[in-house]
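Re: that chain you flagged

S.,

Sorry for the slow reply, it's been a week of failed gels. I finally had a moment to sit down with the sequence you sent. For the record, here it is as I used it:
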Amino acid sequence: MSTTTHNTYHDGGVQSLGFQPEGSRATVGVVQPGTYRFDTGAPERMTVVAGTLEVRLAAEGGWSTHPKGTVFEVPGNSSFEVRAASPSAYLCEFL
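Prediction finished late last night. Pasting the structure tokens below so you have them in one place:
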């Protein structure tokens, strides 16, 4: 049986539930309207499951738009920013 964890970031602007499907690690979460910065340890694959997220990877500098159903990857040991104009949701898989 896996353990589910709850994380709250940026004064509640981003909340996620962590779980371990089939030995891997993942989170599902909700992003409230705003702009938020995160640091990564492991590489991450992010799938937008509702709404739209704009993303700025530290290594690239510019913003890219990711509507529902799209995927972006974040390198390990880096940082990225996300911004949402309306509540949005994601699945984050740690690679």
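What I noticed first: The radius of gyration is 13 Å.

Talk soon,
D.
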